[in-house]
From TrEMBL:
Signal peptide: none annotated. GO terms for molecular function: glycosyltransferase activity. Keywords: Glycoprotein, Glycosyltransferase, Membrane, Transferase. It comes from Mikania micrantha. It is found in: Membrane. It is a single-pass type II membrane protein. The keyword Membrane applies. GO terms for cellular component: membrane. The keyword Nucleus does not apply. Its main location: membrane. InterPro entries: BC10-like, Glyco_trans_14. Transmembrane segments: none annotated. This is Core-2/I-branching beta-1,6-N-acetylglucosaminyltransferase family protein.
């Protein structure tokens, strides 16, 4: 299907809300990557034994040919893809493409976007329960009055988007089925962002947060589930290598966190972390059982 056909098909919503069959809600894990998934063995261990509770979708460069064995959970999970450029609408197109493909499976209820450098920092049961029992979806959406927030707003967004509705956030999100449908069916705000949010306005930081703040603000937790380290400075968060993966580092992944979960204080705020280089795989496999629970 073309994108136009795909989004149209994915936007179908049943009018009878009660399912006439036994439905076990699944999490759709959507991998946005240029090519390989170097941390796949770690994810394989994370997924093992929970096959009825998840689906996997991979969006890579069209030229990439995966070589997963038929026994892998990643085997044959590639979706028809196009080139996605950081900071441009093609990146949001890739994310919408992932959502649309995942929506075609009526069992998918929760949709989590991750990259090839992400790892789960809790076991599958904890992540599933945390996601399924939340009253809100997890997408960062905050009003930044500075030059990298409201400073990127273009008055040509009016009347669809007012500057008071302009939001910024991480592109790594979790949304439920209702919000995923809003994203793939949007034809009102998409053209505005396509035309008027171009570098130095980075659309993947603004389109989804602004769209969902306008359409469904009461369903947002206004925070991401994916932890990154900005302490090293620069336009991108820190990338961790093999020498970074120590017992002390693994302990820090769960320490010093406090947030609201369903309106109450929680010490579990992030379920995933990035950015981990391919060289970290062996160390992560050594520490995963003791520190990540899988």
């Amino acid at each position: 299907m073309s994108d136009e056909e795909l989004f149209w098909r994915a936007s179908f919503v049943p009018q009878v809300k009660q399912y006439p069959f036994s439905r076990v809600p699944k999490i759709a894990f959507m991998f946005l990557t240029k090519g390989p998934l170097p941390l796949a063995p770690l994810w394989e261990r994370f997924f093992k034994g929970h096959e009825s509770l998840f689906s996997i979708y991979i969006h890579s460069l069209p030229s990439y040919e995966p070589r997963f064995p038929s026994t892998s959970v990643f085997f044959n999970r590639q979706i028809p893809s196009q080139v996605a450029e950081w900071g441009r609408m093609s990146m949001c197109d890739a994310e919408r493409r992932l959502l649309a493909n995942a929506l075609l499976d009526i069992s998918n209820e929760y949709f989590i976007l991750v990259s090839e450098s992400c790892i789960p920092i809790y076991n599958f049961t904890t992540i599933y329960r945390y996601t399924a029992q939340s009253k809100y979806s997890f997408i960062g959406a905050f009003d930044d009055p500075g030059p990298f927030g409201r400073g990127r707003y273009n008055p040509n967004m009016l009347p669809e988007v007012n500057i008071s509705q302009w939001r910024k956030g991480s592109q790594w999100f979790e949304v439920n089925r209702k919000l995923a449908l809003i994203v793939v069916s949007d034809v009102t705000y998409y053209p505005k962002f396509l035309e008027f949010c171009r570098p130095a306005c980075y659309v993947d930081e603004h389109y989804f947060p602004t769209l969902l703040t306008i359409r469904a603000p009461n369903l947002l937790a206004n925070r991401s589930l994916t932890w990154v380290d900005w302490s090293r400075g620069g336009a991108h968060p820190a990338t961790f290598g093999a020498t970074d993966i120590t017992e002390g580092f693994m302990m820090k992944l769960h320490e010093g966190q406090e947030c609201l979960y369903n309106g109450k204080p929680s010490f579990i705020c992030y379920l995933f972390a990035r950015k981990f280089a391919p060289s970290t795989l062996q160390q992560l496999l050594v520490f995963a059982a003791d520190f990540l629970g899988y």
